[in-house]
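Q: Convert this sequence to structure tokens.
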Amino acid sequence: MKSVKFFFAIAVLCMAGMTGTVEAQERRNEDWKQKFMSEKIAFLTSEMQITPEEAQVFWPVYNQIWKEKDEVMKKIFKSFRELEEALDSGKSGKEINKLMEAYLAAEQQQRDIDAQVAERVGKVLPVEKTARLFIAEEKFRRQQINRLHGKPENRGSKPQN
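A:
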């Protein structure tokens, strides 16, 4: 009986420790997201040369677009994982086709949102600043990739082919 209680106590402690670990990981993820978004906001604001008045109308529109993109990216990643798992586990062609259609539909949703960005941002910013958004986002993306690979930042450079 003592060994059962001991085992139960150890199991409870392990579960509590795992919960703390999961919570800590979630906090790190949220901290990372906050840092990433702060850097992105500063970068885009600078690159697009938006005024405080423009920022007041631009950021709510951009934040809505970003939220939509984030939701679609979650769908893309989920459907990709499901498709990959189906292939690895030898699912039927019919099941794989269904999962592939879901993946392609999520990818299309992302393209649809991207296609609407110019129109939606163009309603609150001049066309030059709307165009700067596309350039600034690509520069920021490249900066983040270079950072991951340990390369020095080069904000003003043109993309290499």
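Residues 53-148 form one domain.
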